[in-house]
Each structure stands twice: as structure tokens, then as C-alpha cells.
Amino acid sequence: MIKMLKEVTVWNVEFRQPNHTYLLNSKGQILAYARWHSNTDIDIQKSRTYLDKRYRKFIEVNHTGLSKLIPQFLKEEKDSIIKEIIPENTRVFKVKSKDKEYQVLLKNDQYSCSCIGYGYRGKCKHIDAVAEKQHVAKKQQNQKKSPSPLDILAEVC
Question: I want to staple 6 with a disulfide (CB 3.0 to 4.6 A). Which of 21, 25, 44, 55 is the partner?
Fold first, then answer.
């Protein structure tokens, strides 16, 4: 979840210490920040650094300039979450059943599904449907690759 925090710390220093408004991802890393004196002067961070909140005070706000960046960062965050959840060398199939959508994962010839039935029984109709479709697709590929005896005879003659 993305948050917008405005710093409201009162600094006991003789110079003007600016309090910026920050756009943070769910891990507390700074995605972008708006400078204290402007709604349009926004810096987007290339590297993700954590916001140190020790000895500082913040309030949640809605900043017009930073709000425009949220859709972009939501997509990035969603993609990174998916990469963390789904291991490498895993195929993901989306299966619609009635009004719900389930994810069937295939890794090392082992299937798993996000439905309740798989959780209870270790098998479900969604996996059966994906496995059948995979089997048919493999069969079609093998038929295309292996020439028929007539093709071989024609090449010889």
C-alpha cells in the first residue's frame, strides 16, 4: 500500500530545516518526494531508500503532485509482489470458473491451485482442465514435429 506522509517535525536549529512530503511504498521506501515549498517540484527516487522516522513526526496527507504518480508506482509494486510470490520457472494459468478466477501454478510438472478444493483435497477441476489443455497442446506440437510415414516416403523417392 502506498502512503503519502508530510513531515511536521519542529526542528530546534537556527536555520530553516525543510519538511518534505514523501510518497512511500509498502516497505517504507521513498518512491518520490515533494519539496517543502512547492506542489510541482517533485523528485522521483531512482534507488529505494528507507525513510528514517526516528525523532521525526509525520502526518498522512493527500498531495496533488504526488497523487499523479500513484498509478505508476502501484503497477511497479504489484509486479514486484508477483515476482516475490511466484518462484522462477513457474507457469501461471488463470482459470475462470463461474464468477471467480483462480490461479493454477505449474512447476517441475507439479500443479497447485488457489481454490479451496485444492487446499482440502490436493486436486481440483481447475488443475484437471489446465493439465488436459497442456496435454492436448503437447500432443499437437509432437504431431507437427514428427513427420508422417508418407512424408518420409515422399522425401526418399
Answer: 21
Measured CA to CA, the distance from residue 1 to residue 63 in angstroms comes to 16
Counting every residue written for the chain, the total comes to 157
DSSP state of 29: B
Report pLDDT for 69.
Answer: 82
The CA radius of gyration of the chain, in Å to the nearest whole number, is: 27
Given a contact cutoff of 8 angstroms between Cβ atoms, the answer to whether 105 and 111 are in contact is yes
0.85 exceeded by pTM: no
For residue 121, count other CB atoms closer than 10 A to its CB.
9
Using DSSP's 3-state secondary structure scheme, residue 104 falls into: strand
Give the per-residue pLDDT at 80: 66
Contacts of 11 (CB under 8 A, 6+ apart): 17
Question: Which DSSP string corresponds to 14-45?
Answer: SS-----EEEE-TTSBEEEEE-TT-SS-EEE-
Alpha carbons 84 and 80: distance in angstroms, whole number: 6
Strand, coil or helix: what is 137? helix
Q: Report whether 149 contacts 157 (CB < 8 A).
A: no
Beta pairing partners, 59: 6
